[in-house]
Write a structure and sequence with these properties.
This protein is an all-alpha fold. It has one domain (7-257). The protein has twelve helices and no strands. The protein has helices at residues 7-25, 34-39, 44-66, 72-76, 79-96, 106-127, 136-153, 157-166, 171-199, 208-216, 218-231, 237-257. Helix 6 (106-127) runs antiparallel to helix 12 (237-257) and helix 7 packs antiparallel against helix 8. The longest helix has 29 residues, at 171-199. It is globular, with a radius of gyration of 17 Å.
Length: 258
């Protein structure tokens, strides 16, 4: 089996793989740029399935390096709501599908959710803890939105970035907590996607070509994770927060326009 990709698609795919590795160990907000890049390499749902395989490979590095910094108390309280959001996201993938041009209109919803989260974070700077995402209502919204977004298009990164930043976690705790979050739920998506393929085999989430591409891109991911690990200690906390939020906002607008 050979991959029939153009030179441009190979370059775009390699950039996506590099950014995946870098985002898992360096600046998390960069990872959301992978969603539109991978959509240029593989069509629709296959790009989602191929991307999740690449993400899991990078997640393993992040967990290995940052697991000792994990704030399990912050993670555990979010897990049930994320699981609920994933169930809703799976149902949405099955029911909504794509439009006539092959575009997934659900990206509009995801981009809107991210912008709402960023807006709440900015308002919280003025109004204080009344709008903190770690309140009961905030946990339900954040977890459900993140679970939904990660299931339909691997796009929960901006939501989690806003949530973790709003908690005021130091860089290393931010990285350790999100590392476990993404590994757990990216692995959980595999059986959900297999179930969707069983229910609608004409709309596959995985393909042999996509899995082969992921295998070929593993060395590029490794380069990305090492570059990210080298850079993280060299990025000041304030710059880290600004980058995470700014890239999240850019990604949200990109999803809406797409």
């Amino acid at each position: 089996m050979t991959l029939t990709l153009t030179i441009e698609q190979w370059l775009v795919g390699a950039l996506a793989a590099l950014l995946i590795g870098f985002s898992k160990t360096g600046v998390p907000g960069v990872g959301i740029l992978v969603v539109p890049l991978m959509a240029l390499v593989f069509p629709g749902r296959v790009s989602v399935g191929t991307t999740v395989v690449l993400l899991i490979a990078a997640d393993l590095f992040a967990v290995t390096w940052y697991r000792q910094y994990t704030r399990w108390d912050k993670l555990v309280q979010l897990l049930p709501w994320v699981a609920g959001g994933m169930v809703i996201g799976t149902a949405a993938l099955f029911a909504i599908g794509e439009d006539a041009q092959g575009r997934d209109n659900i990206n509009l919803v995801i981009g809107g959710l991210v912008l709402v989260m960023i807006g709440l974070y900015v308002l919280r700077l003025k109004w204080g803890d009344r709008l903190r995402p770690s309140s009961k209502t905030g946990l339900v919204f954040t977890g459900s939105a993140a679970g939904f977004a990660t299931t339909v298009s691997n796009a929960s990164g901006p939501i989690m970035s806003v949530y973790m930043t709003s908690l005021g976690l130091p860089k290393m705790e931010f990285m350790g907590t999100t590392a476990w979050y993404f590994l757990i739920f990216n692995l959980t998506k595999i059986p959900l996607y297999v179930l969707l393929m069983a229910l609608a085999p004409e709309r596959p989430m995985f393909s042999p070509h996509g899995l082969l591409f992921a295998l070929v891109m593993l060395p590029v991911i490794v380069i990305g994770v090492y570059v990210g690990r080298w850079m993280l200690p060299r990025v000041p906390q304030r710059v880290f927060n600004v980058l995470a939020l700014s890239l999240s906002a850019i990604a949200a607008v990109r999803l809406i326009l797409q």
